Every structure is written in C-alpha cells, then in structure tokens.
C-alpha cells in the first residue's frame, strides 16, 4: 500500500461514497460468478441508507486514497452475541484490488475489540472472494464449500 492510502473509522456522511464503492465492486468483481438479476438485487441492498444503518451496529472502517474512499469493512456481534462476531461489507474498488488493501481491512477488523472478544468470527463470502478469505485463515463453516440460500459461502475463524 502506498503512503496516501489510509484506514479510518466510518463517520456519518461516508455512506453515499461507501455505497458507490460497494455497488461498483459488486457489479464488476462478481459478474463472472453471479447472474445479472442477483447482482442487481445485491446492489439495491447496499443503498446509502442501508450502509448508514449497518454502520450504527458495527465497527465500520473506510479505506481512503487521499480523500477518496476506495474500500470498506465492518465487524459486529454475530446476531447480537458478545462471544461471536461477524465480518460484513468488505469491499475494495476493482482498480485497487490485489494491492494488499483487502488484507489491511481484514487485519484492522481482526484487531478490533469485537474480533478479540469472540471465540469465533464468521464471514458470508461471495463466491468471488472465497480464496481471499481462505488465504486470510478462514475455513469453511461446517465443511460446506458451496453457497447457501443467500448465495454466499460461510467461512469462519476461531480465536486461539
């Protein structure tokens, strides 16, 4: 990562740019793994309003190149649990992928108190991102390697 790229907590007002990052990334990065209808529905479910609401319940971070938001990610309690956590909304603009930014987001989330207090952290991965999470040490939940009814692959990591 270059010197201009930094990560910081999400603040109110970031939701519009974060939504644009998520929607662009879904449309471009996932197009080979999902049908157009699924991508369209997924884009709709990441509106600025949804992002702002999600950021209220999670510890949410944004990655910036200078002032421009280029990535994001969050961690929250797994269904409100204080002993399990869930990674969510981890995206990096396609033109910034393969530069270590996704790794930096996950490392930041794994240094967050929600991760540290949990015995287990889960992530619902797109088919596209499964290998990324596997490289980050996540394993298939219950050994299931195929997408669930929400079209995501469930992976998890256990704290030692």
Report on this structure.
There is one protein chain. The protein is of the alpha+beta class and 160 residues long. The protein has a single domain (5-158), classed as Gcn5-related N-acetyltransferase (GNAT) (Aminopeptidase). The protein is 34% helix and 28% strand. It is built from six helices and seven strands. Strands 1-2-3-4-5-7-6 form a seven-stranded mixed sheet, sandwiched between helices. Strand 2 (59-65) and strand 3 (68-77) form a beta hairpin. Helix 1 runs antiparallel to helix 2 (36-44) and helix 1 packs across helix 3 (48-57). It starts with a strand and ends with a strand. 32% of the residues are buried.
Throw out a few tags for this protein:
7-stranded mixed beta sheet, 160 residues, Aminopeptidase, single chain
Q: Could you give the order of the helices and strands?
A: EHHHEEEHHEHEE
Low-confidence spans: pLDDT under 50, at least 5 residues? none
As for the number of domains, it is: 1
Q: Strands of the largest sheet, in order across it?
A: 1-2-3-4-5-7-6
Counting helices, strands and paired strands, the structural category is: alpha+beta
Report the CATH topology name: Aminopeptidase
Number of strands: 7
Tell me, rounded to a whole number, the average pLDDT: 96
Helix content bin: 25-40%
Question: Tell me, what is the CATH class?
Answer: Alpha Beta
Largest sheet: 7 strands, mixed
Overall radius of gyration: 15 Å
What is the distance, rounded to the nearest whole angstrom, between the alpha carbons of the first and last residues?
Answer: 29 Å
Q: For the record, what is the CATH homologous superfamily label?
A: Gcn5-related N-acetyltransferase (GNAT)
Which percent range describes the beta-strand content? 25-35%
Supply the number of helical segments: 6
Indicate the overall shape: globular
**Known CATH architecture:** 3-Layer(aba) Sandwich
